[in-house]
Amino acid sequence: MTHPLDRLHRGVHLARSDAPGESRTAQLLRDGNPKIAKKVVEEATEVALDAVVSDRDGVIRESVDLLYNLTVLWVWMGITPAEVWAEMEQREKAHGIAGKLPKA
Q: Which CATH number characterizes residue 26's domain?
């Protein structure tokens, strides 16, 4: 079985050809990078705000919205989940599974 984000990516990619008036995803892709990037920021902010007030269910709900909009951004930019997973694996090898690249 495939990962849900892989299925989401495939669904977003397929939605590119939908009519913008009938598909929120098609409309976002038609609007382009500035609109998509704004949606990513909005959803990330909502996740953070729910976290500040310890709204666990809110963080879960808003995380799904964030992942959706991030996936739309990946599709718009021609990024596949496999590329993101490869970067994660490279970082894991260098810094451990919970590691983060040091700031330059």
A: 1.10.287.1080
Question: pLDDT tens, 9-54?
Answer: 999 999 988 887 889 999 999 999 999 999 999 999 999 999 999 9
Q: Residue 44 is part of which domain span?
A: 4-95
**Three-class SS of the chain:** CCCHHHHHHHHHHHHCCCCCCCCHHHHHHHHCHHHHHHHHHHHHHHHHHHHHCCCHHHHHHHHHHHHHHHHHHHHHHCCCHHHHHHHHHHHHHHHCCCCCCCCC
Structural contact between residues 13 and 36, judged by C-beta atoms closer than 8 angstroms:
no
Q: Is residue 13 part of a domain?
A: yes
Q: What predicted TM-score, i.e. pTM, was given to this entire model? A: 0.87
